[in-house]
Amino acid sequence: MRFDIITILPCLFDSVFSGGILKRAIEKGLIQVQIHNLRNYTEDKHKQVDDRPFGGGQGMVMKAEPIFNAVEHIQEKKGSPVYLLSPQGKKFDSGKAKKWSEYEQIILVCGRYEGVDERVIRYLITDEISIGDYILSGGEYASLVIVDAVSRFIPGVVGKEESVQQDSFSKNLFDFPQYTRPRDFRGMKVPSVLFSGDHQKIGQWRREESLKKTWIRRPDLMDKDLSEEDKAILGKIKSEKKGKNHESDESC
Ligand code: SAM
Fold it and tell me: Strands, E, within 18-152: which ranges?
């Protein structure tokens, strides 16, 4: 799996791949990350990557020509996807990360300034991709989010495969609460079930906590095809919550 990142600021990537899971993935040959300086694909002596917008207005716009040149040079197969990072794009999520982990090559084009010439969007890229409803100063930050999230789905990148399966979003449920030593921190105690040694009980508690957290925070994520057991747990959680609301109504 190879990520090709096209940017006008290659220095921003200097240290991000020099530690952690991504460093190990690169060393093991599970992923390759190539950073391409867009200026190397310009055709004028000033290596100009941006220009003023036609029609006037604020800021600068990234020129189409170097981006077309870069993608045409880097793309190994016609079908390899080319994504432009953009706040106007389709929202990136865990489903996309998993699907994209099956590609051999992904090209990520990082925008800057006011964005890129519309002809790049219409005639070159596969899709525009956003990492959230806010404005970043450049696509570089978004591209790193994507490289990290996609890489986690590549077998061998995360030491224990089960941790990826267990992560929030993998099964449309948030991960359960985690605790580590000490058992008692300033009077805040770890739930006793976790010391019971009863793995069935622990598993059930974790499942309940995952269902509860997801139902309270993000009911839209919840799988419509819940098992009968999960439906029963959820019914119990809902009635407990109703009871609590009722109690507080009375105390008001
Ligand atoms: N004027 C643009 C607009 O309103 O859509 C915003 C340009 S922004 C300052 C510069 C670049 O940062 C964009 O071209 C894009 O590559 C990147 N960017 C900003 N926000 C992003 C987001 N939420 N997701 C992905 N990329 C983003």
Answer: 32-37, 50-51, 61-62, 82-91, 105-109, 127-130
